Amino acid sequence: MDTELTKICIIEDNEYMREGWEAILDTQPDFCVLSTFEMCETAFESDDIERADVILMDIDLPGISGIEGVKYLRENYPDILVIMATIFDEDKYIFKALQGGAIGYLMKKVSPDDLCNSIRDARNGGSPMTPEIARKVIQSLHIKKPKESSVQLSERELEILQELATGKSYMAISKQIHLSEDGVRYHIRNIYKKLEVNSRSEAVAKGIKNRIIL
Q1: What is the rounded CA–CA span in Å between residue 115 and residue 152?
Q2: Tens digits of per-residue pLDDT, 49-76?
């Protein structure tokens, strides 16, 4: 089994929450918390940010907000996985975070085990979401697709995009739709090309915005 450490940075202005997350994550043998910050401004000046694999970030931060922070990280460090952890469950925050480049969205009341497993899931290609957040995303997929759409996806591509929106890993999708992982990746590349995006979160956000997912 791969024992490579997942390097994590935390951006959270609540001292007790920040220290709590750090204590939880540092007990895990496969995690290493590089640094914690109370705001984006100080985080983005640190060399530890570019070394991080995963950033756990709040939305309601002083100065640069989490939504703006996600966009900055996406533009400057596209390989870093950003997971939002917040008290906000309103649709506007969820979709702004996903559109900005977040690959996961958790409520702060998430349990320690679920928090750790969510980070592992993100590293394995998933998009972790607290159940109530996943429900909101799925409900948005039930909106009827317009008759005319500028983006035309095949039935298989639509199926895969919808599975991506639920946070499944490529392996889980391949099992769900009975297709090889290479086949799933092939279709995902086509989806990205048609939607003119570069990541799972961007594809899901655009699919939701344009209502092309059934």
Answers
A1: 37
A2: 999 999 999 988 888 988 899 999 989 9
CATH number for the domain formed by residue range(s) 143-209 = 1.10.10.10
User: CB count, 10 Å around CB of 144?
Assistant: 7
| Domains of the chain by residue range | 6-128, 143-209
| pLDDT tens-digit series, residues 75-114 | 999 999 999 888 876 667 777 887 788 888 888 888 999 9
**Multiple choice CATH, 6-128, 3.40.50.2300, 3.90.1150.10, 2.60.40.10, 3.40.50.620:** 3.40.50.2300
